[in-house]
Structure formats: C-alpha cells, structure tokens
Amino acid sequence: MPPTWVLVVAAVFLLAALGFWMYLGVHILAPVPRPPRRSEKQYVTILPDGKRSEPKELPCWLDKWAAERELARRKAARPGTAERNEPSQLKIEEPELFMSVVVPAFNEEERLGGMLEEAVAYLQKAYGGAHEGGQGSDQEKGWEILVVSDGSTDATVERALEFARDHQLSQHPVPRKGPWKEVKEATHIPHGSIRVITLEKNRGKGGAVTHGMRHVRGKYVVFADADGASRFEDLGKLVEGCKAVEDKFGRGVAIGSRAHLVGSEAVVKRSKLRNFLMHSFHLLLRIMTPRATAAIKDTQCGFKLFSRNALPDIIPFMHSEGWIFDVEMLMLAEAANIAMIEVAIGWKEVMGSKLNVIRDSLGMAWGLAILRAAWILGVYSKE
Ligand SMILES: Nc1nc2c(ncn2[C@@H]2O[C@H](COP(=O)(O)OP(=O)(O)O)[C@@H](O)[C@H]2O)c(=O)[nH]1
Ligand SMILES: [Mg+2]
C-alpha cells in the first residue's frame, strides 16, 4: 500500500487532468458566434416612392457600447483608479422609438405575410405612426420591424419588401391572411418602418435574433416568430408585465408563455412525441439551469420582450446560434439580476414548422449541456 500522501497527490493530479481535458473539450465544442459580415450590417427598405432602397448602414448600439466599455476599461486599468463598470452601468444609446420587433425568418415566404399583417395592425393602432415619438420623447410612439432573413433560399426577402411596398403605397392594401384573424382590411403603414436584413449564410434562430437585437432602436424590443403563432395583440400584456418588474436601471424581461395552454387543444394537437420531448426538456432545464431560469415554465416561446436597458447585460454575451438561445438569454438576465416575468399569451400552432422534433430535441439537450459547462468552467465569460 503506498503512503497516503502519494494517493492524495495522485488523486489531485487525476482531478486536475480531468478538469483540464473537460475545459479543453468544452472550449473546442462550445459554439463561437461568427462575426457579422459587412453586408449583414446593412438593411434595405422601401422608399416613399415604392422603390427598393440601396443597402443602408444599420445603426448598432452594441458597437458604440463596446467601444465605450473598452475605453472605461483602459481608464480603470490606469494606476490610481478603482472604478469598475458593470455592463448595466454603461449607458446604452437613447431609443429613437418605442417598439422594435425582430422577426427571425428562415424560408418563410409562405407564412411571413400573415404575421406581418397582424403585427402592423397592432403596432399602428397601439404606437401610432412609425416615425412618431422620437429621441428623448416620453410618448409611447413609434415602431419598427426588423425582418432578419437567415440565409433564406426562397423569396422571404422579396415577400417582406412586397408587403412593405403594398402597405406603404396604398391606402387600402391587399390584406394577407394571418393565423389569428379573418383580416378584412389591411393597415396602411408609414414608409421605412420595415427593415429587411439578410444574413449571407444561415446561422440558426438564435444567431438571427441576436443579430437583429444588436440593431434595434426601440425602448422595448420583442422578438416574434415569422409564422404568427403568438397572438400579436398580446404584446401589450408583455409591455405591462415588463414595466411592472423593471428595476431602477429600467431593466426587465417579459416572457410570453404558453404554460396555461398545457392540456388545451393547441398543445394536445401536437404529436405525442413532441409533448413527451417537451416534458423531458423541461425536466432537464429544471436540473441544469440556475433558480430563476429553472422557474420559467415556458422557456421556448418565440415571443419575448426586453426593455432596452436590459440589452447590454444580455446581447453582447450571447453564444447560442440554435434553438437553445432562449435559455442562454434567460440565464444571462438572471446572472445580471434582471427581473423576469412570465405572461400568458395566445398561441396557435401553425402548419409548416421547421423544427425537426427528434434531431432538434437532441441538439437542444446537447446545446444546453455545453452551454452550462461553458459558463461554469469559465470558457464563456463576461470579460
Ligand atoms: N434564423 C432561423 N430561424 C429559423 C430557423 N428555423 C426556423 N426559424 C425561425 O424560427 C421561428 C419558429 O420556427 P417554427 O418552424 O415555426 O418552429 P416552431 O414554432 O417551434 O415549430 C420562425 O420565425 C422561423 O422562421 C433557422 O434555421 N434559422
Ligand atoms: Mg411555429
């Protein structure tokens, strides 16, 4: 029998080796988002005369914020200064309008029109003209929609621009049919209110949403699925919910939730397999995520609202490109002590889902494991 100290040294050595290999493994496997390409920092829109604009530069609060953070860091590194800036203490650029809607769209030529129809009907009614409000204004006015085509190979971009053209030029545009309403009349919208961004290469829903959210001008930002599955009018409820929990920095997150629908037709109509996988995923989440995130009943709902001031604590630190990105957003919010509230919304399952139930469920479980490990081992950090 070797002496105890040899056993201890061997054990420590083994643990250290294991830790090292785990760190290395996670380091290799954890996704690193690809930086945006030149053309992806631009958008096209429809001009007042109905023509398609040239690509224009997207405003990017994140670039300015990152530059300021760097500056603050260098200052803090100088001898004699003890300041340390948390992301939330660095001011994000002032909003220019009230509501930004980010719509990730991957091959959505069929479904996008109906979603946009219902979105603009509500936005125009609730927040008035797209260009009302303005910087420094307390009015809850002004809106924009950013459609992020995620390397679509169909006519998603053309459909989005056609929709904008039709609804800008005509006082009585042709209504597109959405999942929620028999739309009899369509809404006339102000020019330039819909911006279309094209990712050159497919990234996944998480990549597309994060990219869009770097370029929003709104005081509140919501992302919504292109199929119109969530009842857009419930946006009002998300805003109320978010305001109710915002902290003194004006940070809050409101999460659209379908938890109240479990057992109802909308959920039951899904396949048994999908529901089984959904329950397994929830179990996994409850075990693997920190407290506040684990308490969220519906993490995957594609309708989530963020106050602008919450963005700098979340968006710069996102890594997930795929379906697990929602969980990363919530975990980042939790880590920054941002209050989250779940708000019940209406939901309709829309034909044509792009989710591949088995492959994507396994992918999500794997993604969650890697994500968690990367944060715990310090492969991902806020530095
Ligand atoms: N960016 C991106 N978005 C995707 C991809 N697949 C689906 N989406 C978007 O994610 C949203 C939800 O997709 P959907 O197919 O309806 O999934 P489900 O509602 O979970 O069944 C829609 O806005 C899709 O366009 C993808 O590969 N990349
Ligand atoms: Mg859907």
TrEMBL record:
<keyword id="KW-0812">Transmembrane</keyword>
<keyword id="KW-0472">Membrane</keyword>
<feature type="transmembrane region" description="Helical">
    <location>
        <begin position="6"/>
        <end position="30"/>
    </location>
</feature>
<dbReference type="GO" id="GO:0005789">
    <property type="term" value="C:endoplasmic reticulum membrane"/>
</dbReference>
<dbReference type="GO" id="GO:0004581">
    <property type="term" value="F:dolichyl-phosphate beta-glucosyltransferase activity"/>
</dbReference>
<keyword id="KW-0256">Endoplasmic reticulum</keyword>
<dbReference type="GO" id="GO:0006487">
    <property type="term" value="P:protein N-linked glycosylation"/>
</dbReference>
<feature type="domain" description="Glycosyltransferase 2-like">
    <location>
        <begin position="100"/>
        <end position="272"/>
    </location>
</feature>
<dbReference type="InterPro" id="IPR035518">
    <property type="entry name" value="DPG_synthase"/>
</dbReference>
<keyword id="KW-1133">Transmembrane helix</keyword>
<keyword id="KW-0808">Transferase</keyword>
<keyword id="KW-0328">Glycosyltransferase</keyword>
<dbReference type="InterPro" id="IPR029044">
    <property type="entry name" value="Nucleotide-diphossugar_trans"/>
</dbReference>
<dbReference type="Pfam" id="PF00535">
    <property type="entry name" value="Glycos_transf_2"/>
</dbReference>
<dbReference type="InterPro" id="IPR001173">
    <property type="entry name" value="Glyco_trans_2-like"/>
</dbReference>
<keyword id="KW-0735">Signal-anchor</keyword>
<comment type="similarity">
    <text>Belongs to the glycosyltransferase 2 family.</text>
</comment>
<comment type="pathway">
    <text>Protein modification; protein glycosylation.</text>
</comment>
<protein>
    <recommendedName>
        <fullName>dolichyl-phosphate beta-glucosyltransferase</fullName>
        <ecNumber>2.4.1.117</ecNumber>
    </recommendedName>
</protein>
